[in-house]
Amino acid sequence: QKVVIVSLLKKSTNQKANSLSSILGIFLHSTHAPEKVIKTMVKMGLSISVDAIHDTVRSLSAESSHALQYLGQTLLAAYAYDNFDINLKSTVPTAEKSTNSLKHLTSGLLFPLQHGVTRDDLKCSYELWQKS
């Protein structure tokens, strides 16, 4: 409660002091809160606007994309892929819709190699071919 009160007081004196409302806005977005709930929180001064939330998500996505591109270009990253299936059942089956609700998807993960691994450490393909 004290954090919310202090945050509201800071925001009333400085419009750029909206870290709590930004975090709450992103949380509301991530939990798929209805737009009415977000607008109510905005009117109470507890959240940033729906447009600001969307701008923030776009900005964070762009930053993430650039960080992943940079990491991949360093060649000091490991890649992991996984195939998975999701059954997207319709709540009301209709004759017009196809009954094939099974979707086959692939997820990917890119993470940095740790413990001081260098590009020279990874130059071992010749040695691997000789031993295989």
TrEMBL record:
This is Uncharacterized protein. The lineage of its organism: Eukaryota, Fungi, Dikarya, Basidiomycota, Agaricomycotina.
